[in-house]
Amino acid sequence: MGRELAMLAKINQAAPLVHCITNYVVANFTANGLLAIGASPVMADEVEEVADMVSIAGALLLNIGTVNTSTAGAMLAAGSKANECGVPVVLDPVGVGATPFRKNVVAKILDEVKIDVLRCNEGELASIYGVAWASRGVDSGAGEMDTIQAAKEVARKYQCIVVVTGEVDLESDGEDIIQIAGGNIYATCITGTGCLLSAICAAVLACSEQPMQDLASTLKQYKEASAKSGQDLGTFQAEFINALQRLAEGWQ
Q1: What's the CA gap between 153 and 147, in Å, rounded?
Q2: Residues 30, 214: Cα–Cα separation, whole Å
Q3: Total Cβ atoms within 10 A of residue 213
Q4: What one-character DSSP code corresponds to residue 128?
Q5: Other Cβ atoms within 10 Å of 44 Cβ, number
Q6: 54 burial class (0-12, 13-18, 19+ CB within 10 angstroms)?
Q7: Which CATH class is domain 3-245?
Q8: What is the tens place of the pLDDT at every residue in 205-231?
Q9: Confidence class of residue 133 from pLDDT cuts 50, 70 and 90?
Q10: DSSP 28
Q11: 8 Å CB contact between 128 and 118
């Protein structure tokens, strides 16, 4: 099996526990997607238990899609404990530019938690980078920015890998840039594909010794799975999860 097909299979064999503090819109899809590739999801977000939970996890996902004061506190507590335990952290700053509250939550996380991967769309990167952008809620929106340069600078600032997904995905560690084309436009027409990808990035970190290369492999496989998932929105999610399972189990 080639390198580009190896990463989901590696996750399937390692079966990492991925602690997801995520949003209620996508929690079920995220859990099912992780299960499809052989990972074990846990969605604990009670501030009283997140430190205990993340201490036994392979990786932590922080997704602010439906963040509130309580879950923001849980994210900070879990992130702090993850750093203490050496558990890698993925941040998905959903709609960070939409409101001051979201922007403040993300700024606090970036200030207090050492993240390993920032997985975002172009509009979210623009907000973190400090570029004016016409945001549409949690959608990417539109604006003008040198996305490659922004990704490199944000990666250097926060000493993390930045993954910017879109028609062509970008990945940067502050020096190198990897670009991955392909996929299916219908993946942008349903809720949760970006959020699931962030969770899968966390699963990658839980069992990777070379995250830059393994994340790139995963991005390629993710686009491959979406390309094989048809064009009917009502069944796209199910077909997409089936495609991820096949890749993870080596069926194709």
Answers
A1: 10
A2: 20
A3: 14
A4: H
A5: 17
A6: buried
A7: alpha beta
A8: 999 999 999 999 999 999 999 999 988
A9: low
A10: H
A11: yes
